């Protein structure tokens, strides 16, 4: 027959070994964590192990003084076990924030008092007595509880019940293996509590001594099983559930057999599971498809989920996911993450549709001009299939005469990210003809989504041909008009030589009218040449310097004009054409004045966020029809301007985002007396840019003087002015 004392000793020491193993393994799993769950668990299990060791030593020592010492030491070291268990439960269930140093000290008061009473036992308040009893044929010391001991056991019972309630709640709130993990911890906690309850109640069939130290070994076995099977201490269940359930991404955890271990609420909703899906084959949750097979094999895929939860590849009104597969925990366990990219995918498809259905050609080329992408519009414009062009070199399709003019600006912008290049060139059509494309290429090599030149090209073949015809017809018209006017002027000279006063007067009128008509072609051509560089928004220009320069030239052109220029310090967005605009207004005042001494006043003033150039004169004013047509920007047969001077001013100001307006100011007392004031409004430049404009001499040549004109008598070069009227370029070839 097996000796009873040996059995108790072996059971006690085995319990100590199991508890120590559980605590050590838990420490190894939690040593990298910042919370104190590992420390509290080690305190709990190591405390239980010491309790069991002292119980075994007490049994071995028997009713001796040493056995008496082991008895008291056993109860002293057992007092903090309950508090350690409560702290572990709080940390494990995600309530670690509640555990503060002050509250920990308060929780330690009861164990400290109980330990002191165990040692001192004043007046038998903790133990009524300590007696020797024979248990299963062996004699050992046992305690007879007093009031203090009963209260201590009652406190432990309440703490144990609170611990089990915390663990039960965690098990209810968790799912999958984490629910089973929390349930296993709750079972382990209930075993010592049940043993202590039996000791206090002492039913007839229960052992007549406290078996809690031995039962701790059973709790340790349950915890070791939970650590192995349910990955206890990898993640606390409530902390896991808080993060896991709160994720917007759909999460599915599968084991080595592709069976579902866990799903989060987002996955259950996305795949219409109707439950948590735990235990089902992954193929049932993610219906058989090539994407699902690749995903379970560990590959990242893109999947599309219909409203009914089926994965499919045809368009409709689906939900789009990016799915990834990552290993998790032990070998074979994987986590499948489905990120909802529906909005992004729909936006990408929308923009792709914009590009694919646009009339303009969208293309991307690398640094060597190899086409990496070209939109379907190329088929309608050039007759080429987009797939046949991708991978080819763009310059192979460009007219040989245009290749250099296209390649050079792109090559120059290669080292300047974000720079735009405007190009116009001829491209070969599939039928062998040529089409003119005009557009912009932007250096987007720094953009990982593009990584090349992004080009937007528009078919301008019809416009180019129209402009070519217009240029030819205009040149022919000017040529024929000049020839015919020369004939008219020749005959007028013959008439004037007859000596008849009436005939001479008529001949003079014919000559003057023909001269004005002959100058019209040159004037129109000057307007065209002047405006070729317009529409660029302008740059900072010293407006006062421009006004002064125009005033000086006007005094030379109209010696009889009384011209005053009053300026404030003003810098505005303009260009070299500003002088031409101001000149045309001043010239208009001089040419259309009906007196011998026209009086003109030019003022420059800042008006808030604008700079105003006001030109007032004492002439008859500008006709109503001219003003309405130019201000509205439209002409009709009944409403149009009588000349092109005001139109030129309007176009120059439009090019720099300025405004042209007219102010009625019939003031005979003014100097000069005015009928209509012409106002040119420009955007103000402030700060450092304005100071820099005032410090430079660049705008002091506001007429855009260009070299390269015909040689002057002194061997120099005659300036070529970008303007009209007296400073128009009359030296150029009319057939240009």
What do these coordinates show?
A five-stranded antiparallel β-sheet has the order 4-3-7-6-5, sandwiched between helices. A five-stranded antiparallel β-sheet has the order 9-8-12-11-10, with helices on both faces. It has a five-stranded mixed β-sheet with strand order 14-16-17-19-18. Helices cover 48% and strands 18% of the residues. The relative contact order is 0.05. The chain has four domains: 4-238, Rhodopsin 7-helix transmembrane proteins (Rhopdopsin 7-helix transmembrane proteins); 247-345, Beta-Lactamase (2-Layer Sandwich), CATH 3.30.450.20; 358-459, 2-Layer Sandwich (Beta-Lactamase); 534-704, Histidine kinase-like ATPase, C-terminal domain (Heat Shock Protein 90). The chain has 22 helices and 19 strands. Strand 8 and strand 9 (371-374) form a beta hairpin. The protein starts with a helix and ends in a 41-residue tail after the last helix. By secondary structure, it is of the alpha+beta class. Keywords: ATP-binding, Kinase, Membrane, Nucleotide-binding, Transferase, Transmembrane, Transmembrane helix, Two-component regulatory system. It is an enzyme of class 2 (transferase). Residues 699-736 are annotated as: Disordered. It is a multi-pass membrane protein.
In terms of topology, how is this protein built?
Layout: H1 4-30, H2 37-61, H3 65-92, H4 101-120, E1 127-135, E2 138-145, H5 147-173, H6 177-201, H7 212-229, H8 237-246, E3 250-254, E4 260-263, H9 265-270, H10 282-285, H11 290-296, E5 301-305, E6 319-327, E7 334-340, H12 342-357, E8 361-365, E9 371-374, H13 377-382, H14 386-389, H15 403-412, E10 420-428, E11 434-443, E12 453-459, H16 461-496, H17 501-530, E13 539-542, H18 543-557, E14 562-567, E15 571-574, H19 578-591, E16 599-607, E17 610-617, H20 624-632, H21 645-655, E18 659-667, E19 674-683, H22 688-695
Parallel strand pairs: 14-16
Antiparallel strand pairs: 1-2, 3-4, 3-7, 5-6, 6-7, 8-9, 8-12, 10-11, 11-12, 13-15, 16-17, 17-19, 18-19
Helix pairs in contact: 1-2, 1-7, 2-3, 2-7, 3-4, 3-5, 5-6, 6-7, 16-17, 18-19, 19-21
